[in-house]
TrEMBL record, chain B:
Record gene name: fluC
Key words, A-Z: Cell membrane, Ion channel, Ion transport, Membrane, Metal-binding, Sodium, Transmembrane, Transmembrane helix, Transport
Species this protein is from: Synechococcus lacustris str. Tous
GO biological process assignments: cellular detoxification of fluoride
This protein's name: Fluoride-specific ion channel FluC
Localization, UniProt: Cell membrane
Amino acid sequence: MKTIRLELVDLLLVGVGAIPGALLRWQASVHLAPFLPFASAGADLVVNVIGAALLGYLVAPPATAAPLLLALGIGFCGSLTTFSSWMLDIALLQRQGMHLDALALLILSLGLGLGAAAGAYRLKGQLQSHR
Amino acid sequence: MLKSILLVSLGAVPGAWLRFRLINHFEPIVPAKHWATLAVNIGASFCLGLLVALNQLCLSNQLMLLLATGFLGSLSTFSTFVVELLVLLHKQAPAEALLLALASVVSGLLALELGLAIGGLQ
């Protein structure tokens, strides 16, 4: 069984990435929501898709250096994106009787998120092969 | 404004730490890490439902910034979930990817609704 030791440095790196990630997500919902369809649900969708793309790029081969993966991947992307608010956005649309919009938000998030992650994953490979 | 920034940050750091810790802790037990991510996301969704319901009654906006925006927002993650789906698709395991996507969304919504209900939101 592999045991994973959590070093203080690891926690520091995750924390350093988590703060700007969470602040950006919060500010996106404050400033972008008024201009987007579905208000804060739209803002959550935007940060989720951007975070998915960045993480897709980071995990694509060749491997990203471990400290960078901790700070940017687990810290920044993990905190920038949110699953719980996405669920809340869908549930609130449903509660307002907007079932079709709730379903659209569900499918759009999954589709755009997967597409962004897959696109960024492939982009890294292409950038490497051009070098 | 400065106080709000501090509150979101103060919530975000332990949220990210807990997610990091839990996902690594589950690894030897759960066959693949994506089921640990699912567990963390479900837990965060339940807590968010509870907080949103309680917010209607008694919680201050500052507490919501600390706990909901900061802590739970950082604890739950969409990017890892999506990248794990992508990894399953790359491994030619579309059935497991579909199962993970359905399980995540259905249980996440149920957990959130349960939290809302327990918190007393109709």
